[in-house]
């Protein structure tokens, strides 16, 4: 069949079909829903669990395998991929393509319940499993916050204040901060002093691990009164850490400051850092709520 010959013979019909396609396309373009940052339901989640000090083989046997067996009991799963590294376990869960968008959140709730069921079976050194299921969140607004003469702590406090105020606005679903630097206490052991004083690294670790724990101290019965006893020995300043007696050397009255240099600093290397106009800054990311107009929210 010669299509071109048929088109010339039925010229009016071809013109009519072209007109219908043009009018229908123009009407659809005008009526179709349009979003600058469309909402996307991602049927993918990841379970992240840390296990400091463990080898990849230990992580696989004691963490990844335990979690994966529990996760496989839930339905609507298309594929599970797991990765075990030194100190870290990653499990990626993908739902079936037939799962309706309105049922995705319910599936992730079931995932969290399955993980909670086996949390007591994980080793004591493992961290709490974290479920990441917000890959579809779109941050349509990104602001940079700078402050002349403000240190990182003060700038972070102002950013947290802005976050609390913005999250209360109508149409705002989520607010996150980017570029915060975590503070830490650096303890640098002095090998020569430790050797002269006979202090072992294991004794220093045992001293630090035994502090800052909340423990049950009991009650004191005083006649008709029953008084709750608490031990307040938490670290509050760098000096508190420096003045700690080293475990096993109580008679020598050795303190941590005698065999180590202790200072407050920021984590190094910094994972996320942000600058705006060559100034230290913090990013404020804002995601609009489902069904809201991000232009009006902004």
From TrEMBL:
Keywords carried by this UniProt record: Membrane, Transmembrane, Transmembrane helix
Regions crossing the membrane: 12-30
Cited InterPro entries: AcrB_DN_DC_subdom (IPR027463), Acrflvin-R (IPR001036)
Entry GO CC: plasma membrane
Pfam family membership, one: ACR_tran
GO molecular function, one term: xenobiotic transmembrane transporter activity
Matching Gene3D superfamilies: Multidrug efflux transporter AcrB pore domain, Multidrug efflux transporter AcrB pore domain like, Multidrug efflux transporter AcrB TolC docking domain, DN and DC subdomains, Multidrug efflux transporter AcrB transmembrane domain
Name of the protein in its database record: RND transporter, HAE1/HME family, permease protein
């Amino acid at each position: 069949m010669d299509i071109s010959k048929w088109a010339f013979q039925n010229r009016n019909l071809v013109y009519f079909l072209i007109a219908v396609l043009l009018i229908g396309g123009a009407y659809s373009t005008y009526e179709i829903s349009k979003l600058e940052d469309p909402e996307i339901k991602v049927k993918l989640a990841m379970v992240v669990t840390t296990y400091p000090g463990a080898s990849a083989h230990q992580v696989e046997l004691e963490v990844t395998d335990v979690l994966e067996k529990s996760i496989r009991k839930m339905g609507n799963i298309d594929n599970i991929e797991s990765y075990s590294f030194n100190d870290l376990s990653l499990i990626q869960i993908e739902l079936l393509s037939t799962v309706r968008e309105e049922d995705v959140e319910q599936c992730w709730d079931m995932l969290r319940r399955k993980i909670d069921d086996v949390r007591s079976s994980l080793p004591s050194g493992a961290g709490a499993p974290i479920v990441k299921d917000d890959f579809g969140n779109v941050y349509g607004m990104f602001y940079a916050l700078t402050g002349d003469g403000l240190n990182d702590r003060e700038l972070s406090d102002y950013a947290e204040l802005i976050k609390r105020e913005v999250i209360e606005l109508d149409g705002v679903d989520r607010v996150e901060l980017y570029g915060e630097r975590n503070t830490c206490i650096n303890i640098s052991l002095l090998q020569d002093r430790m050797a002269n004083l006979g202090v072992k690294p294991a004794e220093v670790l045992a001293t630090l691990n035994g502090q800052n724990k909340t423990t049950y101290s009991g009650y004191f019965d005083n006649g008709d009164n029953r008084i709750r006893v608490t031990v307040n020995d938490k670290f509050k300043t760098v000096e508190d850490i420096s003045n700690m007696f080293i475990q096993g050397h109580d008679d020598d009255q050795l303190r941590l400051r005698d065999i180590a240099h202790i200072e407050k600093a920021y984590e190094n290397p910094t994972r996320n850092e942000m600058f705006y106009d060559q100034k230290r800054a913090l990013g404020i990311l804002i995601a609009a709520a489902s069904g809201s107009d991000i232009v009006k929210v902004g």
